[in-house]
Amino acid sequence: MRAMLAIAAKDLRLLARDRTSAFFVLAFPLAVAIFFGTVFGGGTTNEASIRLAVRDAGGGPLSMGLRKDLATRPQLEVLPVPDESAGETMVRRGQASALLVIPADFDDRAANLLQGGRMELDLRVDPARNAESAMLVGTLHELGFRAVARAMGDVSNTRRMIEGGRAAMALSPSMTVDRRDRLLALLTAVDDLARHGDLPAAARGSGDGAGDGPAMPQWIVVKTTEVRDRRTGPSNAYAITFPQGAAWGLMGCVVTFAAGLAEERRRGTMLRLATAPLPLAAVLLGKAAACFAASLGVILFLAVAARLAFGVQVSDWRLLVLAASASAFAFSGLAMALASFFRTESSARSACNAVVLVLAMVGGGTVPLAFMPGFLRTLSGFSPFSWSILAVEGAVWRGMGLAEMLPSILVLVALGVAGMVLGLARLRVGDPST
Questions:
Q1: Residue 389 falls within a domain, yes or no?
Q2: Assuming Cys at both sites, which of 60, 267, 313, 383 could form a disulfide with 359, CB separation 3.0 to 4.6 Å?
Q3: Hey, is 264 helix, strand or coil?
Q4: Which residues lie below 8 Å from residue 305, measured CB to CB, with a gap of 6+?
């Protein structure tokens, strides 16, 4: 028993002395717990989680009231757009979850509610964000009922509704005389109340329960359409999930090549290469080239497999190759940077797995960006995952052109260059931890 305890104590002391292992045993799990707590906990209550582009084609009092109600929702970030085309472009680029178009006749339709009319809203959603779309539809129904309540609470508007209802009943060939007389008497009584300002509070929209009336759900219609590639759109669900799979394939390349480079440093292979008549930059670029080729091969292999096995239609293969090349370059730079911090394969593999996992979480690889607090969405701009996924989606099904994809491509190239420069700088000066 004493010997067993002595061995256990020795191993614990070794763990405590190994800073890398101790960090991933103690600190890293805490960081992961804090991350998910921030995403799914109280951190989302006061920050917008869904970016909604809004085009108000009418600009009337009711549509303006609807926009103000949307702006008060903490889970929404309302982004006014000048026209529908600009809003759809934002959705295709992943800059917004959906585009809401408030029609030009939104306010006018309120006058026809008693004649069987409806107030319509046009919601154009990103097909890759079904959860956010369902949430938006529910929110729009609720706030649309408030718009109906405002319309009913407007005395002049209510009287127009009544007059329209009277005219519709007078022209209805299927309504009996007795029923017409009773309904006309009812409308006359309501009209009298409206003239004297005695409309019920519910009709004035004074409370939150704008949808209490049994007929109100029939007065609001939210038409939902998907913003697809103008030529094909996502051919199936695999077209949406393929870019995420490709990004995770890149994760394996980063870990493998970073760990391999760290092991070569431990064995002295890098030292022998450094003393050879060969610039250190050439050595590093050679290692990066191998990682680049493997990463590019992973993405293209998955693309071909998705096409042949699952019928995924790629909008533009040339742009896909460009997006894959930029992604492979960014992750190759990341692998070289990470490898320069470690001198053993085990520590490099553990650290790289952890770092890439964090980048994947921040970049939307595990939790959709729409559900993240605002500051985490800002941080996602530093993750190659978010840019890689957007670039590949743009080529596969979002219907992006070269100009629309260019920002993602440039960011990925910049991240790759930064990784190469950092890795080369650390290899030249040596690892200060040793």
A1: yes
A2: 383
A3: helix
A4: none
Same domain, 193 and 110: yes
Q: How many domains does the chain have?
A: 2
What does DSSP say about strands 76-80 and 50-56: parallel, antiparallel, or unpaired? parallel
The pair of structure tokens assigned to 373 is 């607090």
Tens of pLDDT along the chain (434 residues) come to 676 666 566 555 655 666 665 565 556 555 655 655 565 554 444 445 688 999 999 888 888 999 999 999 888 889 999 999 899 888 887 788 899 999 998 887 776 665 566 888 999 998 877 778 888 988 898 888 888 777 665 555 555 555 565 555 555 666 665 665 665 565 565 555 455 554 444 444 444 444 444 444 467 889 998 886 555 557 777 887 888 888 888 888 898 888 888 877 777 666 565 565 667 777 788 888 899 999 999 999 999 998 998 888 898 999 999 999 999 999 999 999 998 888 777 778 888 888 888 888 888 777 666 566 667 777 888 899 999 988 998 898 888 889 889 999 999 999 999 999 999 888 776 644 43
Residues with Cβ within 8 Å of 215's Cβ and at least 6 positions away in sequence, in order, are none
Q: What is the pTM of this model?
A: 0.65
Q: Same domain, yes or no, for 163 and 248?
A: no
